[in-house]
Automatic annotation (TrEMBL):
This is Cysteine desulfuration protein SufE. InterPro entries: Fe-S_metab-assoc_dom. Residues 12-133 form the Fe-S metabolism associated domain. Belongs to the SufE family. SUPFAM superfamilies: SufE/NifU. Signal peptide: none annotated. It comes from the Bacteria. It comes from Mycolicibacterium brumae. It holds the Pfam family SufE.
Length: 140
């Protein structure tokens, strides 16, 4: 399994910092979560109930060479927004095959496990699982 270059770069950036700086970086990602396009409403998106905070995602795999990912999470949920933003920055626009090849536990490489509860990291894992499931439904 491999990691697409944008996601690998994010993982490397997290590896370059320690402790609370990792949390600060996660919050920076949370602030950078792209807004939904005007034609996509949260009500039409898939909820991710494994997340501690409300999170919705939409996967557009109609072009398997450039999968589009959209996330919605409230501003009051910075950890969840940060995780969504990491996936958006690391995987949006990537080929379906590359996203499907991402290791399910890639989030361990971010080094956040000691700083964030397992319940929170389970949300990130669930997001990736749902993205992969949606892609498989379209491309297989």
């Amino acid at each position: 399994m491999s990691t697409p270059a944008p996601l690998a770069e994010i993982i490397a950036d997290f590896a370059d910092v320690d402790g609370q700086d990792k949390l600060a970086m996660l919050l920076e990602f949370a602030n950078d979560l792209p807004a939904l396009p005007a034609d996509l409403e949260e009500a039409a998106m898939e909820p991710v109930p494994e997340c501690q905070s409300p999170l919705f995602l939409h996967v557009d795999a109609s072009d398997p060479e450039q999968v589009r990912l959209y996330f919605s999470a409230p501003a009051e949920a910075p950890t969840t927004r940060g995780f969504a933003a990491i996936l958006a920055a690391g995987l949006d626009g990537q080929p379906a095959a590359d996203i499907l090849a991402v290791p399910d536990d890639f989030y361990l490489e971010l080094g956040l496990a000691k700083l964030i509860s397992p319940l929170r990291t389970r949300g990130l894992s669930a997001m990736l699982h749902r993205i992969k499931r949606r892609i498989r439904a379209v491309v297989e």
